[in-house]
Specification:
Number of domains: 2
Order of helices and strands: HHHHEEEEEHEHHEEHEEEHEHEEHHEEHH
Shape: elongated
CATH class of the largest domain: Alpha Beta
Strand content: 15-25%
Helix content: 25-40%
Structural class: alpha/beta
Radius of gyration: 25 Å
Number of helices: 14
CATH topology of the largest domain: Aminopeptidase
CATH architecture of the largest domain: 3-Layer(aba) Sandwich
Length: 477
């Protein structure tokens, strides 16, 4: 009898939860048009979760192509993969958009060591993109630890002949880890430009992550306006190694750090953006772009950064076609090349849009990983921002509560204009920097259901944007 009562109780709770969810949806007092929209959005989510293709597309890209740094043979394989897949989805037209891209190569695996209290320690290290190599024999020098570019600048000539170690960690009090990333990535990008002018021998940087682990994070760096003779080798060490090195420096300030890397910048290489579209049924001259970047860093498989964004974007078109949703404006899917170290693909796309007098009225980018959807950031005029925020009642049942003013994405931002509505897809950020730019960014780190929810979320906001947004103002250079 007790078992029966228990089972009845569980059933009652489950039924109550179902009714509660329905009550939340019904209590919004939707207008007749909003009811149509609500039904369409539910259909998009149902399709993505029961017949989505994004996960298997991502498996194919990551397992059969892998890491695909611009200019590499793998990047070309990815272009061919993307063109073939767009044609299989049966978009109205598919084409390749030529672009010249940087071609930096890592070379042999980097090594780093130092000795403290008679113990030699091996350090997980990786070169930063665009860094020069060390001399063939490597670099050996004493280390100066700093927390900021300003602190390094203040040292001036004291850096001469030394390895400067930037060790500013993420601010763990920030809930959005992208904000924490933005708060310390300047040391990675500009550290060599600051230290090179004072004769530093090299720069090493704490990896950009809120985790303490043994995986070094690569990423792009810049020499700024330094003359080439002042270029110095620059690398990232893992966050755990940074913690240990910092402790050892306090005990032995004169310890010497050694590392060797073999990277090289080759001449620019030819590549392509991959572009496909569903032509608009009413105003085809108006274009919505949906995209992610096809290139990735070379250490992993480029799964979260940005394989998920690529398959998210194409699945928007797939879900429209599967559910016979005919956009009134042209829906253009773009796999951008070279976001990671140059954004040449984005710049070329925007340049050609102006040259061809195309009228882009909006864009959506996915470049924040494939974790659980949280919402969208909006870069638009006040009227269109308010319009998008008014859709929260339609989107919040799917966990899309965040509709905040903010940036959109590196690849669509060149399309910015007063009457262009740009949106960035924003999933949960807590795990993203565990994988970002590392050898851990692999297919197995992506959850199938979370990925599919992302595709449906993007398709839903594009459905609403296509239905309710309009502009006849072309983008401005």
């Amino acid at each position: 009898m007790r078992k029966i009562i228990f089972l009845f109780s569980i059933s009652f709770v489950m039924l109550s939860c179902d009714k509660k969810e329905e009550k939340v949806l019904d209590s919004n007092q939707l207008s007749s048009e909003e009811k149509i929209d609500s039904t369409t959005i539910k259909t998009l989510f149902n399709s993505a979760l029961t017949d989505g293709k994004s996960y298997e597309w991502l498996r194919d890209l990551t397992q059969n192509v892998g890491g695909r740094l611009s200019g590499s043979p793998e990047a070309q394989m990815a272009v061919e993969w993307g063109e073939k897949l767009m044609k299989e989805v049966d978009l109205d037209s598919v084409w390749l958009q030529p672009v010249m891209v940087p071609h930096w190569v890592r070379g042999e695996k980097e090594i780093a060591t130092y000795t403290s209290n008679g113990v030699q320690k091996n350090v997980p290290i990786c070169a930063l993109g665009f860094s020069i190599a060390t001399p063939e024999s490597g670099v050996l020098a004493e280390v100066i630890e700093v927390k900021s570019l300003e602190e390094a600048e203040a040292l001036g000539d004291k850096m001469e002949g030394k390895i400067v170690f930037f060790n500013r960690p993420f601010d763990d009090t920030l809930i959005n880890t992208f904000s924490a990333y933005g708060g310390c990535v300047d040391q990675r990008v500009n550290g060599a430009a600051v230290c090179g002018k004072f004769g530093a021998k090299a720069v090493i940087v704490r990896s950009m992550t809120n985790s303490i682990d043994d995986y070094p994070h690569t990423g792009t760096m810049s020499y700024g306006d330094l003359p080439i003779e002042k270029y110095i080798p620059t690398a990232a060490i893992s966050s755990r190694a940074a913690e240990i090195l910092s402790t050892d420096l306090k005990e032995n300030p004169s310890l010497k750090f050694y590392f060797k890397q073999n990277c090289e910048t080759l001449p620019d290489a030819p590549s392509f953006n991959v572009v496909g579209e569903i032509r608009g049924s009413k105003t085809p001259e108006n274009i919505f772009v949906v995209g992610g970047h096809l290139d990735s860093w070379d250490l992993g498989e480029g799964a979260h950064d940005d394989g998920t964004g690529v398959v998210h974007s194409l699945e928007v078109a797939y879900l429209f076609k599967k559910n016979n949703i005919k956009p009134k404006n042209t829906l253009r899917i773009v796999f951008f090349m070279n976001e990671e170290n140059g954004t040449r693909g984005a710049k070329k796309y925007a340049e050609l849009a102006i040259l061809n007098k195309e009228n882009h009225i909006g864009g959506l980018e996915s470049d924040a990983g494939g974790h659980t959807p949280r919402g969208f950031s909006i870069d638009a005029n006040s009227m269109n921002t308010a319009l998008l925020q008014s859709w929260k009642k339609l989107l919040s049942p799917y966990g899309l509560h965040d509709l905040d003013k903010g940036g959109s994405g590196a690849d669509i931002s060149p399309l910015k204009g007063e009457n262009v509505t740009l949106v960035g897809y924003r999933p949960d950020s807590q795990r993203y920097f565990d994988y970002h730019h590392t050898s851990r960014d692999t297919f197995d780190k992506v959850n199938k259901r979370e990925l599919e929810l992302g595709s449906a979320s993007m398709a839903s906001i594009i459905y609403l944007m296509d239905k309710y947004l309009y502009s006849d103002a072309p983008i401005k250079p």
